Model the fold of this input.
Amino acid sequence: MLPKKRRPTPPGEILKYEFLEPLRINQKQLAESLGITRVRINEIILGKRAISPDTVLRLAHYFNTTVDFWLGLQMDVNVWDTMQKYSSEYKKIRPMAATA
Done:
């Protein structure tokens, strides 16, 4: 469920504070373990880059989590951002009338 008054926590923050810091893994070590660049990890952590399906799969395998966990985090942010950007447009849409 999306929060109503604040943007959902981005996956990069979860990655940093719930995984890297407690496990004492730095960005370079993670990047090497995943077979991707440190820049890619850094941009995700800084919120400059979304987590791609490829990165989702790598993170899920490495941390023994589910793909849905990482996809859900990213999707929540994407939906929130879209809702904020187009909220005036969505308010113009009238629900379809029910048919009997």
Q: What stands out?
A: The domain at 11-76 is CATH 1.10.260.40 (434 Repressor (Amino-terminal Domain)). The helical segments are 11-23, 27-34, 38-45, 53-63, 67-91. The two ends are 31 Å apart (CA to CA).
